[in-house]
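Entry 14. Two folds queued back to back today. First construct below, sequence then structure tokens.
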Amino acid sequence: MTKTIHAELTCIVFRYAIQMVHDGAHDELASLGLTENSIRWIASLTEADLQRLKEIRFSAVEAWFDEEALKRLQPLLEGRKREEDEENELLRLGAHLSMMRHLCGMGGAEYAKRRRYLGLGDTGAGRPMALNEEQQQRLWRVWQDSAGQPGKARYIAIGRCTGIHLGCVWSQIQQWENASAGSGVGAAESDGLNGGGT
């Protein structure tokens, strides 16, 4: 394998090393094969020095891909993309923060950031409106028909099918769940109301 790599990649690696020096990550730097002398020298490099590196046709950095690791990485990355797509769809359908926290483990900062990215504003629409009787009946039918689907997929299907804001859906489901728990309904049915896992 050639030891000469693209100048831009060399600068990226040097910038990464400089950042680790600033973060005090000396163990990580040592694991990259750097001695204390090399670490001190890299830490002293200026932006002008990094630009000069691009002009020198010499590299002290080697890079390669681990094919077996790539095979393991691909499904992990694809799985995370599917999760993000589901999360984004929940937000588009009106999921509020408490719902996203419960279903996805999403915190407030990420919730606001993701909503901004999707053009939905920083926060949700406030307290969900109560559903009328016809909406409740429609929601109950769709909820029963969607039993067995994973939690996030189930709520997405409900939002698409009913057109009801997911904040309202979540609020109504929680009311049903609380009422069922208070009337002694079994744990299995209560879990069904909660929508299961992801």
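Second construct, same run, same settings:
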Amino acid sequence: MSYNRCECQKCGSLFATMIDSDAEIQKETCPKCGEKKLKLTGPMSFSEISSLFYSGG
């Protein structure tokens, strides 16, 4: 299972996604602002994924 970084072109928020296609990510809306302006910015590293799931919260 791999995750990609996704950035909203409107509000600048960053998210993790399992979507790996530019065509598919453009169909999704930003969870923060609701706009359909998402763009994939590359695969997440192991340390980035670990910090998401094991942040000690």
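Quick look at the second one. The longest helix spans residues 46-53. The mean pLDDT is 89.
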